[in-house]
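During the reporting period the student researcher (J.K.) took over the structure-prediction task from the postdoctoral fellow and processed the backlog of single-chain submissions. One of the processed entries is reproduced below for the supervisory committee.
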Amino acid sequence: MEHTSDTTLCQDARVSDSPLIRPYRGVLAGDRVASRREALIDAALEVFATEGWAALSARRICEQAGLTRRYFYESFDDLDAVLGAAFDRITGQVTQAVGAAVSAAIAADGEAPLSELVAQAISAGLEVVTTPPSNGRFLAVAQTAGSSIAERRARSIDDLAAIVEAVLSIHREGQLVGRKQARIVAVATNGAMLRIIDSWLGDELDLTKEEVVSWATIVALGIIDAVVAVPE
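J.K. obtained the following structure tokens:
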């Protein structure tokens, strides 16, 4: 860990002019802290997008955000914590988008085919991880980075598993789908989707966005059929 005085400025001539560190009348201290925290997460993702994982450090993130190290440690204990927060933000957006897409599809057509629900869920999730594309690359790299991400990944899988369980319970003709099966489907599809998306974003797969959704849907349906065929 880098050891620097809390009052040391990041190496950016614009730090003292940053609107995030000037006091604002009428803005509560808690709101300022929250704003700085979000700015640091934004900065971490921006550094990753332009310079890669290896460039991420507390110092570089501060430089990008235009904030002092004091404010970094006001919000985060260390680099792992801010990277974990970035991971939580993206996975939370993915889960929200997937859940909303599934709910909307069910509300519009209660008998929508499973393939249609899966395709809409994947399309919604893909939109999050490709806007910008660095979101998807960040998730793919972060999940192999270890440290605090492992626990956060488990929580995100739990959220996806709950959606999988709800969807499959509708489409298995009354057959109950257990939580273990739903979690296996969530883990397997999550890994497969990220690998497909990462390969596509890395130009390893020559596919259109629509083709990515189509192939990912085929893979997801195959995983679902294989898993639910095995009793718990």
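The committee noted the following: The domain at 15-75 is CATH 1.10.10.60 (Arc Repressor Mutant, subunit A).
J.K. will present the remaining backlog at the next meeting.
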